[in-house]
Amino acid sequence: MGNLISALCVSLILIASFACGRSIPVAQLPPTKPVEKVKGDILKGVFTLIGGQKVDLEAETQPVVLIFASDTCLTCAEETEVLVALFKDKGSLPTNVKLYTILVGAIEEDAVFWREMFEVTWQVGLDPGDSLFRQYCPEGKTPCTLAYHPDNKSLVKFVGASTPEGLQKETGTWLY
C-alpha cells in the first residue's frame, strides 16, 4: 500500500510539473505572441487581493495586466522570476499599469507564502471559485495573461509563458 501511495504522489508531481507546458526556460523564450485580441468593454469581474481588499476590474482607469497563475506551475514560477528580476533591475514597478497576479485555486495562506517566496512586489489576488479564470482562460492552462487598455478597450490574451518583450510589443510601453 505504501508503494502505491508513493507512486501516486510521484505521478501527481510529474503531472503538475508538465501540465503547465514547461519545456524551455522562460528567460530563453522568444517574445510572446498573443493568442487572442479583442476590442470592446469586456474586462469585468471582481477578485480579492491578499488581505481582503476587492478589485473591481470595471472600475480600473489604468491599463491592467492580469496574470492567472498556479502556485504549483513551474512555468508560472519562472515567468514570475523573470518579472521580479525586471522590476528589480528597473528599481520599481511600472506606474502606468496595474499589474496583478491571480493565483488559481489557491487559498490566502498559500498566496502569501508564494508572494514571499518569489519576492513579488505587485498585488497578488485570489479568485474564489476560479470564476474569472474560467471566464477569460477557458483553455484552463496557466499561465494565462490578459493585457487590457480601458482607453481603446482592447484586450490581448496570452496563454503560456509571457515575456516582458512580448507584452511590450503588444501593449506599447506599459511595462517600461
What would you say this structure looks like, in words?
By secondary structure, the protein is α+β, with helices and mostly antiparallel strands. The chain has 5 helices and 8 strands, in the order H-E-E-E-E-H-E-H-E-H-E-E-H. The protein has helices at 2-19, 74-90, 108-118, 131-136, 164-171, and strands spanning 36-39, 46-49, 54-56, 64-69, 98-103, 123-126, 144-149, 154-159. It has an 8-stranded mixed β-sheet with strand order 1-8-7-4-5-6-2-3. The model is unreliable at 2-24 and 26-31 (pLDDT under 50).
Shape label = globular
Q: Count the helices. How many?
A: 5
Q: C-alpha Rg, in Å?
A: 16 Å
Cα(first) to Cα(last) distance is 55 Å
Uncertain regions spanning at least 5 consecutive residues: 2-24, 26-31
User: Care to count the β-strands?
Assistant: 8
| Element-by-element helix/strand order | HEEEEHEHEHEEH
| Class computed from helices, strands and strand pairing | alpha+beta
Helix residue percentage = 25-40%
Whole-number average pLDDT?
Answer: 79
Strand content bin: 15-25%
Q: Tell me about the biggest sheet?
A: 8 strands, mixed
Strand order of the largest sheet: 1-8-7-4-5-6-2-3
